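Notes from the 1:1 (GR / supervisor)

We went over the backlog. Supervisor wanted to see one worked example end to end before approving the batch request, so GR pasted a single chain during the call. The sequence is below; no edits were made to it. Supervisor asked that the structure be written out right there so they could see what the output format looks like.
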Amino acid sequence: MKPRGLVCSDRAPSPAVRAGRRVRAETDVGSSPAAFVGAGLDAAQRALGSLRGRPAVVVGAGTMVALGASALAARGAGPITVVNRTRARAEALADRVGGAASGIEDLSSALADASVALCCTGSAGAVVGTRAVEDALRGTTFAGGTSLFLVDLAVPRDVDPAVREVPGVAVVDIDDLRGRLEALGGSVAEARRAGEIVEEEVRAFAIARRAARLAPVIRALREAGDRAVEAELARSASRLVSLEPQEREAVEALARGVAAKLLHSPTVRMKELGGEEGDAAVRLLIDLFDLEHPPGV
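Structure output shown during the call:
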């Protein structure tokens, strides 16, 4: 069984989370979670110096965050604050590492006291945004160094990319740690495959969104096909009257099958095409089949 090292939460999957789960299930990118944690904390030490005695925050309560909290404690960081949406899970992990627990609503105040933070939740969107970080650092005097180092090990990212622009803040994420993946052997190909999986999920998401938007056109196209079949069957009724019921059903099924087959390819292609090319194809399809133009399409 493939290790599930990067699993951070059991939240219901969004398209972004589903892509992350596929990466973990179909590649070895998540097979050495401790290596990712170590690489992230090594980067923090290069920026901050020793982590001993430095206050730390971990955001989440899954496997990666537990590893991160233990690794921080092993490097002498502390005190350690565990931040999670579910207070009970935060408290359970905090008890294991001798730290304190805090709710996600107190993220800014927790970061205000921290030098390093490690994040890995199952959220579909950013958990650590610019406002939370700016509030945490308000009143801090910068001398060109790093005051807060964020290690983002979530897939998709927990830290908003805009946070990188906040003065005094440094961020590393999974992409930044790709050099560490190379040292694990065979990881370049795995990282490439992970990128392909993300691209596949993005395409599938785009097609699903477009299919939902084009549903009225697709429905009108199928209804036009049904009307054509019914009209031809009615026109040929006198020639079909001598058929047995089963034979007549076979003829009707054949007619409907041919119509569905003919309409299948343009329907699929209409979903796949995007941008101006896709819009032009939809307009052409509406004109060619003399469909009523659905509102909003």
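Supervisor's comment: The chain has two domains: 15-197, 214-288.
Batch request approved.
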